[in-house]
UniProtKB/TrEMBL annotation:
InterPro entries on file: Lipid/polyisoprenoid-bd_YceI (IPR007372), TTHA0802/YceI-like_sf (IPR036761)
Domain Lipid/polyisoprenoid-binding YceI-like: 46-215
Lineage: Bacteria, Pseudomonadati, Bacteroidota, Cytophagia, Cytophagales
Superkingdom, taxonomy of origin: Bacteria
Protein source organism: Arcicella aquatica
PROSITE patterns: PROKAR_LIPOPROTEIN
Transmembrane segments: none
SMART domains for this protein: YceI
Name of protein: YceI family protein
Amino acid sequence: MNNKISITYLILIIAPWFFGCRGTVKEENENASASSVSLHVGNDKYIMIDTKESVLTWKGSNLNGLNTQTGYVYISKGELMVENGQLMGGTVEIDMNTIEDKNHGSDNNLVNHLKDPDFFEVKKFPFATIVITKVASINDENKNVTGNLTIKGITHPVTFPAKMEVKDGIVRANGKLVIDRTLWDVRYKSAKFYDNLANQTMSDSIEFHINIVAKK
């Protein structure tokens, strides 16, 4: 995957593929790597997301499922709040300019179209964010994550299942988020807004696979 990011057609994010509730930073190691920094706020620990190892993968398709597109988008920055080995919150910022198609990279007609006003209007809205507001434990590994997803300046709550592991100072989390793109004003070839599209109708559902690595 070459460390690439899963928000279709982002449609997406994600992040942008991951998470919220950030407190006031009291201590920061300014000499630490930008991709792996540990911050402490009282009894809470903020662990910076490693942007080189984390990836958000998107998947979109026609309504009939015959034409499927998959690609990546990169996390520009983010942090997870972990307390006593449990995910408590966090934030993820996704750089929409980094959208890529799995088979053809970042310089192709599909990606250029995804950046247009038809889809994500990246020039006006270069970043998407996910802010985690609640984490409910199903068991030690499986969680239900609730947060606010912002795309194109529009924010809606989302809830998705995720798995999380904390081991040797490394947090690994992955989840699957499916959104209705039209809620974020991504209307291109949606049957909700256009008639007589026939086989060209695109599914309103966008699937994101979020893989996050954060380190002390």
